[in-house]
Amino acid sequence: MTEPMPRALLLQERLLQALALALFAVVVGLVAWILATRLRPSRARALGLSLSFPAPAFNLLDQDGKAFDSARLQGKVWVADFIYTRCGASCPTLSAQMAALQKSFRGQEGLALVSITVDPRHDRPAVLKRYANAFGADPSNWAFLSGDADGTDALIEHGFKLPVQRVRAPDGGEHVDIPHSSTLALVDRHGLIRAYYEGIEESAWPKLADGIKALLDEK
Hints:
The protein has helices at about 5-40, 45, 90-105, 125-135, 150-160, 205-215; strands at about 55, 60, 65-70, 75-85, 110-115, 140-145, 185, 190-200. It is of the alpha/beta class and about 220 residues long. The strands form 2 sheets. A 6-stranded mixed β-sheet has the order 1-8-7-4-5-6, sandwiched between helices. Strands 2-3 form a two-stranded antiparallel sheet. The chain is elongated. The protein starts with 6 loop residues before the first helix and ends with a helix.
């Protein structure tokens, strides 16, 4: 005849069983959470913000002739485009759209816009300031930047990973043709380039706005 288990041992066994069940439930819940996270894309990923490589560091001059270091953009979501003031093709479209973007996000902290000239020999700060004013740019979060020509080319090609053609534009003339990229780069709060957008495609701007909102919501 089997002797009954002592009460203390019985309680201990039941406690161990309860702990085992609780641990099993925690493990199952954790696995379910991981699977759900991996299988359900984040809002940013759903919007195609899948790139993740460092934006380049730079030290240029803004439209007021003051030093503008990329460190000023730390902790902000920012958009960079590449223009020049004597451009008669894509640049006016890019700048008009950037102006509309600034207007739609007016009052939104943590967002910055950066326009870098590909014609720095002509586009000195005073020239860029007149250009910025023509598009109603708010200098509080939209900077127009210039630097030396070779450094700017290297910044675009090696830093932003965009094609650039080294063309010495003539000094005269209201409009000159400098082949350059009309692509915009979207950078997150951690200084990582997350996506590119083709600026002369009308359909790209709503997507860019959605991407900005997603990155502003990221921690």
